[in-house]
Design a protein that fits this description.
Elements (H helix, E strand, L loop, with lengths): L9 H4 L7 E6 L34 H4 L4 E6 L2 H7 L17 H10 L3 E6 L2 E6 L7 E6 L1 E2 L2 E2 L1 H14 L3 E4 L12 H11 L3 E5 L18 E3 L12
Parallel strand pairs: 1-5, 1-8, 2-5, 8-9, 9-10
Antiparallel strand pairs: 3-4, 6-7
Length: 233
């Protein structure tokens, strides 16, 4: 669909993202998904300094993390200070994803090759992320009540210290002055250390000035169409 193939061009030239560490800031991860299997991957790069944190629904990080999903952390101090304690009956106070969005974005960025994928029997085929040989480190910053600035900035700082190569986040809430925008601030610190930050352009538009995440040191990525139909019957 994107004109990529496995024998020539940018995909094999990049070694499919071999040993690149991608930090995903979102609503967490469901680690049992096949997209996070580590078959065929070698040891975790020595430069990695992060960890998988235990928590509700993420009780044994030694089995839930592997050579593909190498890190999982949750950030909620800002959220709880503003909203109150996280309700453990409908979401996990850990890196486990109760919304699905973080699992989706992580697998889109760097999910492993999964054969016989589909949507409830529709559009069958193989699924893989854009960098299937990369490693994934998850930073959960979004909760049912939203994503708070202080948690985002704490996650940026931690990802930089952990040793990620790229930070990807599909988060945005409108255009703000750079000095008030936590994504612009956090990504500037990452950029200073040679870490590329990719962000979503938002779900508004098409109309003038509808794009979010416009700081010039970001790689802002727009959505595209699909070569699939899902007819309702």
């Amino acid at each position: 669909f994107l004109g990529l193939n496995t024998s020539s061009g940018p995909w094999p030239d990049s070694r499919f993202g071999h040993d690149v560490i991608v930090g995903i800031m979102d609503s967490g991860v469901w680690p049992e998904r096949r997209s996070f299997g580590d078959s065929g991957l070698g040891p975790v790069p020595d430069r990695w300094r992060g960890e998988c944190e235990a928590g509700p629904g993420f009780d044994d990080p030694r089995t839930l993390c592997n050579k593909k999903l190498i890190g999982a952390r949750a950030f909620y101090k800002g959220y709880e200070a503003a909203v109150g304690p996280i309700n453990g009956s409908n979401e996990y106070r850990s890196a486990r994803d109760s919304q699905g969005h973080g699992t989706h974005t992580a697998s889109t960025a760097a999910g492993a090759h999964v054969r016989h994928a589909g949507l409830l029997g529709s559009a069958p085929g193989d699924a893989r992320g854009m960098a299937p040989a990369a490693r994934i480190a998850v930073y959960k910053v979004c909760w049912k009540g939203g994503c708070f600035n202080s948690d985002l900035l704490a996650a940026f700082e931690r990802a930089i210290l952990d040793g990620v190569d790229i930070i990807s986040l599909s988060i945005g809430g409108g255009v703000l002055p750079y000095f008030l925008d936590p994504i612009a601030i956090g990504s500037f610190a990452a950029m200073e250390r040679g870490i590329l930050v990719t962000t979503s352009a938002g779900n508004a538009g098409p109309s003038p000035q509808s794009i979010t995440n416009v700081a010039p040191w970001l790689l802002t990525v727009a959505a595209s169409t699909l070569d699939r139909d899902f007819p309702a019957i």
